[in-house]
Every structure is written in C-alpha cells, then in structure tokens.
Amino acid sequence: MGPAAEAERLVQEGAAARVLELGALLLDERPTVCADASRVLAELLARKPDMLVPLVDRFVEVAVAGRHRRAVELAAAALPVLARLAPSKVARHLDTLRASFEGASETLRDGLVRTFSALCVASVAYQKRLEPVLSAALAQAEPKTLARWTEVALPALKGEPHAAARSVVEGRLYSIPRPVAQQIATFLGVKLRPARLA
Questions:
Q1: Which secondary-structure segment (H or E) carries 114?
Q2: Distance of alpha carbon 170 from the chain centroid
Q3: Is residue 195's pLDDT more than 60?
Q4: Residues 188, 191, 197, CA angle at the centre, nearest 5°?
Q5: In the Cβ-directed half-sphere of 187, how many Cα atoms lie within 13 Å?
Q6: Residue from 49, 36, 56 nearest 10 by CA
Q7: How far is CA 101 from the centre of its chain?
Q8: Other C-beta atoms lying within 10 Å of the C-beta of residue 155
Q9: What is the pLDDT of residues 71-116, one digit of tens each?
Q10: Is residue 194 scored above 80 in pLDDT?
Q11: What angle do CA 112, 69, 135 make, to 5 degrees?
C-alpha cells in the first residue's frame, strides 16, 4: 500500500494508534523506515492535519534532534499547521524551538518562522517572546528568504513587536538587490529612494 492509500485508510478508520506508531518511527535509526513513515504522515498532513495534533511533541523532537532529512522536512511543514490547530501544545515547546533556530537547516528555519508567526496570530501573548527571534531571523535572512518571511512574520505581529520587526526589514532595504527590495517595499507600502538602492 502506497503512502497516499495508507493515509486515506487512516483517515477513514480514524486510526489514532497507527498515527502514534508512525510518529515514533520518525526517529527510527533506519533511514528507509523513517522515510516511509514520513511519507504517510505528509499525506495525512495534507488530508486531515488534526489527526497529527497528538504528534506535536514528536515533531518538536524531530525538529531538534532528527537526523533524517525527510522527517525534518515533515516537522518543518507540520509545526506551522499544528501551531494554528493547537497553539498551546506547540507553545509548550517555545524555549526548545527558539533555542534550536540558530543551528537549524534552512528548511527547518523556514518552518520555525512560519510556526512562530502562527503562534503570534493565535495569541498576542506570544508576541513579546517571539519578536526577538523573528527579528533576528529577518536580520540574517538571505534577500529572497527575507521577502518571503516579511510577508509571513509582519502581518502576525501587532503593536511594538510589529514596529520592531518592521524596523529590521526596512533597515535592510538599501543593502539588498533592488528587485527584492522593491518587492518588500511594495508589500510594506513604502517608497524606495532610487539613488540609494543596492
């Protein structure tokens, strides 16, 4: 049975126990076992993401210590979705996730920025804790990544956290390539001074 067929069967049967088994396999020593479980869970994420809520702890563990690329990519895709569905379950791991950001792969960093942004949307209570890591991410991002993250992070923030993160982005507009700077400026609703563009 292929991943899509198995995921569909799990949805039809509401097979919570099997979902937990697949989650445990994400940290399996054998790469093929881990990859197979990741494929099924990725299909499940696309079909019925709420079935993955019980795996929040496992996805955090994979994000921090996972060795297999496919499992880490799945965690990066799943955590932002789960942060919208079950923000308090994801927020319990905020300190762990923030601490892992610096050494994370580019794929995982992208997932974490989207996760942190989803939590900020879920509750303003998370914004003061997450604005520093979001601002640091915006300050360090490659130009194209900066454009993408700006469109995700800034709308999620309000008040002072929003102003602080926006200031970081605006401060970079004249040190990045013009096409990307223009894209960001258009999103922000600001006019660039052409003479100072990179």
A1: helix 106-122
A2: 23
A3: no
A4: 105
A5: 20
A6: 49
A7: 11
A8: 13
A9: 999 999 999 999 999 999 999 999 999 999 988 999 999 999 999 9
A10: no
A11: 20
Who's near 189: CB < 8 A, 6+ residues apart?
none
Length of the chain: 198
What lies within 8 Å, CB to CB, of 138 at 6+ separation is 146, 149, 150, 153, 165, 168, 169, 172
Comparing CA positions, the residue from 104, 115, 164, 100 lying closest to residue 138 is 164
Report the predicted TM-score, pTM, of the whole model to 2 decimal places.
0.91
Q: What is the mean pLDDT of the chain?
A: 93
Residue whose token pair is 């922000």? 188
For residues 53 and 154, give the distance between their C-alpha atoms in angstroms, rounded to a whole number: 26
What are 88-93's contacts with CB under 8 Å, separation 24+? 89/53, 89/56, 90/56, 90/60, 90/115, 90/119, 91/119, 91/126, 93/56, 93/57, 93/60
Tokens standing for residue 69: 């690329």
